Amino acid sequence: MNPIIRFENVTKRFGALTVLDNFNFEVGRGEKVTLIGPSGSGKSTVLRILMTLEPFQEGHLELDGISYHEPNGHGPFKASEKHLHKIRCNVGMVFQSFNLFPHMTVLRNIVEAPVAVLKMKRDEAESRATELLRMVGLYDKKDHFPSQLSGGQQQRVAIARALAMRPRVLLFDEPTSALDPQLVGEVLGVIRDLAQEHDLTMLLVTHEMRFAREVSDRVCFFDKGRIVEQGDPELLFSNPQQPRTREFLSSILGEQAPARESLQRVP
Q1: Where are the domains of the chain?
Q2: For the segment 228-244, what is each residue's pLDDT rounded down to a tens digit?
């Protein structure tokens, strides 16, 4: 595998709490990987570190060959804003809570970052935004404000906004957890189309197990800051090898017993 993401012995602490301990993890180019596991197991921390929203204390991290810290006197785990900006230009992230600018129209929400960050010409950015809105099925909402949209529509705009930056890696942090159940399908449909039709590297954190099974090249089960088990989604979901994985899947899928046979019947 030629990894585009490489964690090497990364340790992340919040005060006295160690969330990731000598964490090793690689993601190949174009690979779709889903991280599953209980709340607090470190899944979202992995994404936030990749997005430069959280620093880490030990280890080494690279995105497409670019180290997250510079060997130039900033300190072993610090980097200049200019260096971090170079990393951020290669990563897009879709958050739980949409994070759209309420005072901007849908179109402006998508256009502003490419103009400000990538220095794209505004007419080119608007053309790209229009194309993306058609892709997520919201072209007719381009002049609306976020408050005029449903939660599912806002999340689809957030996906279009992330794609507007032309990222090499796209991160999804529980993209449906803030949505009403009837709106989940429309957002998962957009992500499914992205996974199937584009060569993007995608890293997803989700509790939607059936969706993870459908779209992923690999599923990783996290517990207490480490990957307990990983592999092909069909194998991991139908025949998990680790007791903790079986227990988690049985619990989240609403099963009463952690028996392996019951997991094999999950559609």
Answers
A1: 1-27+37-79+201-267
A2: 999 999 999 999 999 99
